[in-house]
Structures are given as C-alpha cells and as structure tokens.
Write a structure and sequence with these properties.
By secondary structure, the protein is an alpha+beta fold. It has 2 domains: 7-94, Pseudouridine synthase I, catalytic domain, N-terminal subdomain (Alpha-Beta Plaits), CATH 3.30.70.580; 106-242, Alpha-Beta Plaits, CATH 3.30.70.660. It is built from 5 helices and 10 strands; from the N terminus they run βαββαβββαβββααβ. It has helices at residues 31-43, 75-81, 136-144, 194-206, 212-218, and strands spanning 7-14, 50-51, 60-69, 86-94, 106-114, 128-129, 148-151, 166-177, 180-187, 236-242. Strands 1, 2, 3, 4, 5, 6, 7, 8, 9 and 10 form a 10-stranded mixed β-sheet that branches.
Length: 245
C-alpha cells in the first residue's frame, strides 16, 4: 500500500523586534526555533520547516508562509504554546509536495516611515522615524524607476554568495497618509537587505543628498559602496506571498 504523505501550510505573522531573524541559530531566539518547538510539542516530534521568505533580525511579517511534511496542528493549540509576538493565523493541509519557498511566484513587502519632527509613542518598533527633509515627489520618482528587471548589486552586501544579482520587480510605489509614507514593493524574489537599502538610498534622494539620476544609475549594477545606507529593519514587513492560482 502506498504511503500517503501529508503536507501542511501555515500562515503566520510576527513582530520581529525581539527575534534574531527567521533562521534557527544556536543560542539565539528566532522565529523558526520558536515555531519548531511549538510544533514538536503538539505533534510529538520535530518537523523540518520551509519558509517563503527568510526575514532578518528585527523585520516583521504579516503574511509569512511555512510548509512542512506532517499533519496540521490546531491553530488555537499552537497559539497557546507560542510566544505573544508570533501568531499562527491558519494551519491546513496543502497539496502533496507543496513548498512554501519554491512554489511562491512573488513576495510583497512594505517599509513604513513616519516623517515628522516628533517620534511616535506607539509605532517606534514598526516604523522608521524620519525627522529630516523628505521630498515626496522624489520618493515617487524613485519608485517609478523600479518595476522591471534590473541589476541590484548596489543594494545587497558584497560577497553574499549570489550567482545572479538581477531581480524582476513587479510593482513598486510609495503611498502617503498624512505624516506617514509607506513603500510597497512586490518581486519574484529579493536579495539580502535589498529593500532596506533601496529605502535608505531613496531617502538620500528625497533628502537632497543624491540625485534621481544617480539612483537610476545604481540599477545598472553599480558597486554596493555607491548606494545609500541600509535602513533600519524596524520599518520593514513581509506583507504577502503569492502562489499560482
């Protein structure tokens, strides 16, 4: 008799402030280690997790997706043993062989900025406070250059081990709401620190420290040293993962 393999999909969200990123690391508190511990408690044994997007230290997620080979755990039971800053929103059987990472066709991120003289008492762990000059029109102009396929060498740390540094951006835009500006970007995949370095460099343009033309030139494969700083992780959130319909 053939063995029936069960694949489970989890959808989760977390506040990344107190996590050392997604990936399990000895002696550090990570999202993967917390989730693996909870699943082992409920399922009676360890399972190997595949994640749609490996977030860095301090980066948040509202739409993270995880898969593993094994039966689903009940959502309420999982959340009862997980810490308060990590929540499973759904746990369900997926098609056999579903792979949260390899089956994804796009990931969507948002980077949030509070652009005013005073900080916020409520969102200091989820937004970048930006009390300096910010030309909103230049932010929009930068974002308009991003859709399409470009060489993002300038926007990831040198020596990252990537074979290919070209990525296809499906959508990129800044949205404004009073003192707040949010950078939304969707792509097939991303390089390490790519979104945060894009934001840091766009803020340089909007603050008058570099030109729009210089930003455009970076998309042709310039060295990392020519781009701007890597923005603080607190403003970045993995919002969604898309799969084939």
């Amino acid at each position: 008799m053939a063995v029936v393999r069960v694949t489970t999909r989890l959808d989760l969200e977390y506040d990344g402030t107190a996590f050392a990123g997604w990936a399990r690391q000895p002696g550090l508190r990570t999202v993967e280690s917390e989730l693996m511990g909870a699943l082992a408690t409920l399922l009676g044994g360890a399972v190997a997790l595949t994640v749609a997007g490996r977030t860095d230290r301090g980066v948040h997620a509202r739409g993270q997706v995880v898969s593993y080979e094994g039966p689903p755990a009940e959502v309420a039971a999982l959340n009862a043993v997980l810490p308060h800053d990590l929540v499973v929103r759904s746990s369900r059987t997926a098609p056999e062989g579903f792979d949260a990472r390899n089956d994804a066709v796009a990931r969507g991120y948002c980077y949030r900025v509070l652009a005013r003289r005073e900080p916020s008492a409520f969102t200091r762990t989820t937004e970048l406070w930006w009390p300096r000059v910010l030309d909103r029109e230049l932010l929009h102009a930068c974002a308009a250059l991003l859709p399409g396929t470009h060489d993002f060498t300038a926007f990831t740390p040198a020596g990252g081990g990537y074979v290919h540094l070209r990525r296809t951006v499906l959508d990129a835009r800044w949205e404004e709401d009073g003192d707040r500006a949010a950078f939304w970007i969707e792509a097939e995949s991303f390089l390490r620190h790519m979104n945060r370095t894009l934001v840091g460099t766009m803020l340089d343009v909007a603050g008058g420290r570099r030109s729009l033309d210089s930003f455009a030139a970076l998309l042709k494969g310039a060295a990392r040293a020519q781009a701007g700083p890597t923005a603080d992780p607190r403003g970045l959130c993995l919002e969604s993962v898309r799969y084939p319909a």
